[in-house]
Amino acid sequence: MTAQEIVAALQSLGTEQNRKVYARHGSGPNVFGVSFANLEKLRKQIKRDHALAAELWSTGNFDACNLATMIADPGRMTAKDLDHWAKRIGNSCLAGLFARNIASKTAFAKEKAERWSESKDELTGEAGYGVLGCLAMNDRETADAYFEEWLGRIEAGIHQAPNRVRYAMNNAVIAIGIRNPRLRKLALAAAGRIGKVHVDHGETDCKTPDAAAYIKKAAGRARGAS
């Protein structure tokens, strides 16, 4: 399927209700309102198609960009490609999907977490901390000391960070705390010193999780499953 065919398919699958929901989450006006269930069906049909993903990402359309993160090949991403894609992140949802589905799965993940987290652009910063959270959850090779250092940086800067960056930083504390018992203890201590993290979620029902409570709950589930 060509990019034009995909965009036409997305347009036909969109609904007014979803457009309203996505608009409240910052999608902007360039949105068809396609459910993620329908995006998943398209992903299964397309599988991996990196060139197509790049074309869809360049459209700036919310639904096309969401799908692009699902069919892109992280292994084909260069450091320059990642920065190019990061500059086109148009909203918080895309920042999270880009971090989780693509950037965190590349050989440049740590480099980009470091660089993007320092960005003055709010969505790029959110993506940077999103990558960090994914590394904490999925990268089993990295030593605890790496994440311990990040806890200190988050604690020192979270309350001065931009709105969506604060949210991603709080989620990163949670991810680090879930990683293993040692980091759980350190993350809980950091969360206690940080206190409540205030994030404006606009006209949505989204809430900012209490990091300490979330980590403790996750640890309880893990013990129950063992």
Characterization of the model:
The chain has helices at 3-13, 16-24, 36-46, 50-59, 62-71, 79-86, 92-101, 109-117, 122-138, 144-157, 163-179, 181-194, 211-225. It is mainly alpha-helical and 226 residues long. Helix 3 (36-46) crosses helix 5, helix 5 (62-71) packs parallel to helix 7 (92-101) and helix 11 runs antiparallel to helix 12 (181-194). The model has no long low-confidence stretch (mean pLDDT 96).
Topology of helices and strands:
Blueprint: H1 3-13, H2 16-24, H3 36-46, H4 50-59, H5 62-71, H6 79-86, H7 92-101, H8 109-117, H9 122-138, H10 144-157, H11 163-179, H12 181-194, H13 211-225
Helix pairs in contact: 3-5, 4-5, 5-7, 7-9, 8-9, 9-11, 10-11, 10-12, 11-12, 11-13, 12-13
Q: Which short descriptors sum up this protein?
A:
single chain; 69% helix; mainly alpha; 226 residues; globular
